[in-house]
Records
---
Amino acid sequence: MSGWIDLDGWKHREHYEHFRAFANPFFSVCVDVDVTELWGRSREPGGPSFVLGTLHAAVLAADPVEAMRRRMRGDRVWLHDHVGVSTTVLRDDETFGYARISHAGEFHDFAPAARNRLDDARRVRGLPLPAGDDVLYHSTLRWLRFTSFSNALPTGDSIPRLVFGRCVADGDRTIMPVALEVHHAVVHGLDVARFYEQFQSRLNAAAL
């Protein structure tokens, strides 16, 4: 159930108090993930969208990793049941907007709604900002195979940031760099490792 975390009884209380006072409490990890299965399926006639498949895998990967669903609100911490994704969308004029896509357990529910949100974001002018913190922030830098990444970060924000890079061949595999930037007061190294493990598992299954 969504709700406030009881900080008095929380095993991470001291870590939370320690890192939330830092001038730069975020840390970033970049990992190559294997997207061979989804990449191949997306190129079959009638296959799933690679973009939507990776976004859906990321949303589902956050479900079993509680830390990815924690959000700082003032001096308290809220825990969401599920999170969706807020992703950047490149427009024809080379500006970008944001599309907020809700959580869905099944790809056949996620994909149609996601396409509608992406189309809406391409049509809108200006930069309307997505509401709510029950999301992962996401962007794609599909032109570059990067090995590290850092985001522009506002004060008081604890939403995890995901960035996907250029897919490249590595022998008989296709790999994609994925950067994850998180607030250390609510997400720790083991949580990041577990998220990548879940993400890779979803990509391997590619049950779309």
---
Amino acid sequence: MNKEQLAYAAGLFDGEGCVSINKVTAKGYKKPGFQLRASISMTDERMMMQFQEWFYGGCQYRTRPRAKDYWMWVVVARGARDFLTKVEPYLVIKKPQALVGIEFQNYRDNNQSQNKTQEYWDREFELYEQIRRGNARWGTEYYQST
């Protein structure tokens, strides 16, 4: 990809995208795990297929009652980190969330031992909370005016 394509993708992602860290619970585990996710939704199928071609991930068609149907592109874990790393230099609105997401996935990749300590789980949860605060909307428990 060239710089113009990355800047274009970053602009679309800034306006229509989302960086999140989701709780996931695997059978047989005592604690929930977390997974980095980057997604973008829009009604233009062509653009979502272009994101899939450029950054892998997957596309889904979604329907909603009393609202326009849309397409969603989603990439998770290392794929999400790779995408965020590529577009981060061009992001404006989502830059703080992208940096937390990149840090989260790097932390996970650098701490892959089977025996995860409480310190490990606390750090993952801290990064999860940072993303939630960064994505907060007016009226939520995390909203704080500055």
